[in-house]
Amino acid sequence: MELSTILQPECTSCASPGSKKKVLELISDLVAAQYPSLSSQEIFESLVAREKMGSTGIGSGIAIPHGRLTTIEHPIAIFIKCEEPIPFDAIDKQPVDLLFALLVPAEQCQQHLSTLSSMAEKLSDKLILKQLRKSSNSTELYQVITA
């Protein structure tokens, strides 16, 4: 699946959320602004429920928060670069500055895992990480992540 089919430029952001809770709220608000039929509270609760099962901070300053929603028919992606790294309970105990969030329909488990795997692989590319971290605005960030 092409990332640009599930990630809109409006769901890509350079931000300074300050905390794990605030970044999950930001993700929820970005999605709700683009998809008015979705409630930011519902999105936030889905992301928090997954985080309670274990942090989605995969190391090297990267987190891949995700959740399932019964109210959507196709996956929705969000990409955020934090101006200042935030504590995220990552596996390597390092703060996080790059977050790829994914919301999927509750019944699309296999597609969900495939998309998460593809993104984790992309984010393991040191050149891509360097370009993402050098991006100074949302447009640049979107161009790098979808290239």
TrEMBL record:
GO terms for molecular function: protein kinase activator activity; protein-N(PI)-phosphohistidine-sugar phosphotransferase activity. Residues 1-147 form the PTS EIIA type-2 domain. GO terms for biological process: phosphoenolpyruvate-dependent sugar phosphotransferase system. Gene3D superfamilies: Mannitol-specific EII, Chain A. InterPro entries: PTrfase/Anion_transptr, PTS_EIIA_type-2_dom, PTS_Nitro_regul, PTS_SugarTrans_NitroReg. It comes from the Bacteria. This is PTS IIA-like nitrogen regulatory protein PtsN. The lineage of its organism: Bacteria, Pseudomonadati, Pseudomonadota, Gammaproteobacteria, Alteromonadales.
